[in-house]
Design goal:
The protein is of the alpha+beta class. It contains three helices and six strands; from the N terminus they run αβββββαβα. It has a four-stranded mixed sheet with strand order 1-4-5-6, sandwiched between helices.
Length: about 120
């Protein structure tokens, strides 16, 4: 499965199952601006593909980051390792996703461990 297809399917499954989490796609890289013909950099190298929040009724939301690795041969790049370590140091829920169902299970565990 292609990286983008994996990410779309994961987002769809999270939405269908109505988990207490809101996830967003993150775009990182250099892009050509329309009209002005200049390069614009967005994001920070190493940031995860998906980011969001675990939502609670009675306490503040908690940050969540998911790095998609759709291929078994994909490995974290050095800048992704730096981002992972930064997230974990700051108590951000971070996960390397290689399987949709296992990732859904991880999200459920995060939600359950922090429930109201």
């Amino acid at each position: 499965m292609k990286h983008s297809d994996f990410m779309d399917e994961l987002l769809l499954q999270v939405s269908k199952r109505q988990l207490s989490v809101k996830l967003y796609k993150r775009h990182v890289g250099k892009f050509m601006s329309v009209g002005q013909r200049r390069v614009v950099s967005i994001g920070v190298k190493g940031q995860c593909d998906l980011y969001g929040y675990v939502i609670f009724k009675k306490k503040p939301a908690q940050a969540i980051e998911i790095e998609i690795k759709a291929s078994k041969s994909d490995k974290l790049r050095p800048e992704q390792i730096v981002w992972r370590d930064l997230c974990l140091k700051r108590n951000v829920h971070w996960y390397e996703s290689r399987d949709i169902e296992i990732t859904i299970d991880w999200i459920k565990k995060v939600v359950a461990s922090q429930s109201d």
